[in-house]
Amino acid sequence: MWMYNNSRLEEEEFFMKKSIGIAFSGVICALSVVLLFLGSVVWIFAYVMPIVTGLLLIILTESLSKKTALAVYCSTGILSMLLLPDKESALLYVLFFGYYPILKPSIEKIKQKFFCVIAKLVVFNAGVVLSQILCVYVFGMPVEEFLGKVGIVLMLLAANIIFFFYDKLLFALVFLYNKKYKKVVEKYLK
Fold first, then answer.
1. How far apart are CA 36 and CA 78, in angstroms?
2. Dihedral through CA 175, CA 172, CA 176, CA 26, nearest 10?
3. Residue pair 95/130 in contact by the 8 Å Cβ criterion
4. I need a labelling partner for 97 at 20 to 30 A (CA). Which of 7, 20, 70, 74 fits?
5. What is d(CA 65, CA 90) in angstroms, rounded to the nearest whole number?
6. Could you give the count of Cα atoms lying within 13 Å of 61 in the half-sphere of its Cβ?
7. What's the predicted TM-score (pTM) here?
8. C-alpha 90, offset from chain centre
9. What are the CA-CA distances from residue 171 to residues 65, 127, 159 (Å)?
């Protein structure tokens, strides 16, 4: 009788931990969709909110698991593509900023620094270029012909410089989260 009760308590504790993790993931997903909606409504946040929502996945990746973070990324991506009026911020999230915090540790396992940087740049540029192509040709957003083809190259160059700082910021935030906040978050997830 005692063994039955002990295993039942362990089983209940396991499901309680899973339930708390699922609820926390749902809150992160809902917050991400709201932030992306804000980026979709206020034009100045169209490029900032996909970055911020991607950073929220650091919490899930570091405290729960990559699988959980990937599930939240997929859920947020689907909901934002269905619900947001302006698809640009949703596409930036789906095609780069949502999965990059999850993918970054795998890319950084590449031993040679040069190939690691090249892999990061290829992933970034593929995501950004594809999102802009889809915005123009699928969703019919107008093309800004401000500087012509030279302007497109300059914007892509500026985006790569910003990506360099974003990558460094991401490293610093993961370090800060693990050093200061991970124990606090995991205390509430137990």
1. 12
2. -90
3. yes
4. 20
5. 23
6. 22
7. 0.85
8. 11
9. 18, 20, 18
Helix 182-189 and helix 2-41: axis angle, to 10°?
Answer: 120
Closest CA to 74 of 54, 46, 94, 102: 94
Token digits of residue 139: 């969703």
Q: How far apart are CA 56 and CA 29, in angstroms?
A: 9
- Percentage of the chain lying above the pLDDT 90 cut: 57
Q: What is the mean pLDDT of the chain?
A: 86
Residue type for position 129: V
Pair 97, 50: CB distance under 8 Å:
yes
C-alpha span between 93 and 77 (Å, rounded) = 7
Angle at 60 between CA 72 and CA 112, to 5 degrees: 105
Q: Which of 86, 65, 77 is nearest to 32 (CA)?
A: 77
Q: What DSSP state is assigned to residue 96?
A: I
Burial class (CB in 10 A: 0-12, 13-18, 19+), 189: middle
Per-residue tokens: 113? 């620094």
- Structure tokens belonging to residue 10: 């362990």
Nearest to 62 by CA among 190, 182, 183, 189: 182
Q: Which are the contacts of 103, defined by CB distance < 8 A and separation ≥ 6? A: 123
The whole-angstrom separation of Cα 134 and Cα 87 is 9
